[in-house]
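Structure, all three chains, one model.
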Amino acid sequence: MRQPGRVVGGPPDVAQTELWIDRTKCDGSRLCAELFPERISLDDWGYPIISPGPIPASLMAHAEKAVDSCPVLALALRRVERKPPPPPPGAKAR
Amino acid sequence: MTTLSLFSGPPSSAGAESFRDHAKRLGHRPPGDRALIDTLDRSGLVGRGGASFPVGVKWRSVESRSRGVAVVIANGAEGEPLSRKDRTLMALRPHLVIDGALLAADAVGASRTLLYIGEAHGAAAVAMARALGERPPAELARTTLLGAPPSYVAGEETAAVNFVNTGVAAPLAVPPRPFERGVDGRPTLVQNVESLAHAALIARFGDAWFQSLGRHHATGTILLTVSGAVTKPGVIEVASGCSVDEVLALAGGVSGKARAVLLGGYFGGWISADHAGSMVLDPKGLRAAGGSLGCGVVSVLDETADPLDVSARILQHLANESAAQCGPCFFGLRSLSAATTRIASRQADHGDLPQLHRWSAMVKGRGACRHPDGAVAFLESALKVFEPEFSAAAGARGRRAS
Amino acid sequence: MLNDTVLWYTTRGAGAVSLVLLSAVVVLGVLSSLRFEVASWPRFLTTGLHRNIALTAVVFLALHIVTAVVDPFTHLGWLAAVVPFSSYYRTFWLGLGVIAIELLIAITVTSLVRAMIGHSAWRAIHWLSYGSWPIAVVHSFGTGTDAWSAWMLVIDVICIVAVVGAAAARLILRSPDALATDRARFRERVSRKVVK
């Protein structure tokens, strides 16, 4: 049974959905980076670096798997409300 | 010459101004309403807690969602070690702060007002409690005093809200921001006590009056905590738009020779003494230029002090004050602090200095709150202003095979 | 007569398979919380197997229960499968089985709707797995016709050793969450009793 990715702010318009993380919940289990390496890499301490920006339709399935995999429910898919912030230096999108 | 507005009236030696004296000097507080928000817009008042965000805009964002059940938190936590302005203001002019908080409550349609005062600020807490007791019963009934735990991040707005809701002053991830959902899920205005005190005077005397107090394009007055290598350290009130040179003169001048000035506190940044002097202290202007007056700390570093040691200690403090909720903040600041301390002790490893740059970039923006960003910005200013010292110290141990 | 035997063998077989699968599920659950990982075995493999084997076990358990209830030899009604200790047949041991499956249903359902109920609620219920598994084992010894046959004993020993070993590891090894201690220490520092 597939669980749909949790979306904050209404149903996802696929081209305008981005990954959001609650940093206070994330405890570095690293499952998300394994399942969505296209957009999630790990920093020196094992915590996720998320490339900003909307997720294309071709990657949505991976994004949803990553969101489902988080053992502490720190990840969510969110409607892009405004211009995405500039990418943090050091984040690498594959 | 100092420009007084918040500290007009009895001198500081007279202690807290009583309600009777306050009412006699300034009149009772006018009603707060939506028109006050427009006045605040025109006055150019920006938040004095560190972010310098326009106060009118902030109040409007709460008012538009309020439906009469909003909450106001007057933020007097002041966790920044170098800042003393908020506790001084609360100790001397508690009624201005309370006026401002109640005006905000009326203007945004709040049913509860909370005065969030740092536990460690004894004189301020006593003065505020006593002052609250002097207020009319109707005001007392909807106003509560709360002691903020003594931690750096306790004054962060989501930490204040979280403390009221759960008793734990730890920051939360956003969204939702407090103005959307805060105390008990209601729209909440978290405003610095100095900002509220200014609002209390603007409500009486108008936006044109506030504008007239400032210099050039700046408006109003600002409270600063001047410390470090100055003859008369302390809290002063100056016209917004005056220069650092003027501020240092008011603090009795620099004792010794200045190497650099720390502007804004641990969350601010170093400016070299050459550039600092003529720098104009206008919170709005600085923010627009990408800088920040922060919480109004102006701390002078003397030539004879070791800038690396001072910077390393500050960074250590910031690392220790991490809420330890977000991995990048806790581990990132700890790594940065350890490396900076090694460099300052002239015990640097080969890779320490490049790692500082790399880790700074890695940590920025990856905490739930802005604590790691502030710490990184501080470190980056130190790396820039004290570049010669850092390079020399980083190479001091000599090249070794890693 | 043949039908009854088929049903009876299916009940016993499905029960044995469920026990093996659920033992694997508990071990995988512990490996997941300890963040077990080697080069050829990524984290998502542990969590994925844990989930899929659990769901497979539920299917076998359904088979185990349905065949037991419809089997005319046992005279069990549907009520006996739902209300613990309500059967005439091996009342106590079967009752344990009912308890074990009901705990497991709670765990399974909460896991499927985890996103809706939040992490804390999910976690609280999930701890019941440390209760459900031993109860199931005792049930199998009490009701299992094959419980004392050699092959079943071997299977039981392997399962019990595996789960006890995993549980011991869970107790002894430090939590791999590197922030746990400091997070708790900070919260302690900034916690006060707030009168609202």
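Residues 37 and 94 of chain A are 7 Å apart (CA to CA).
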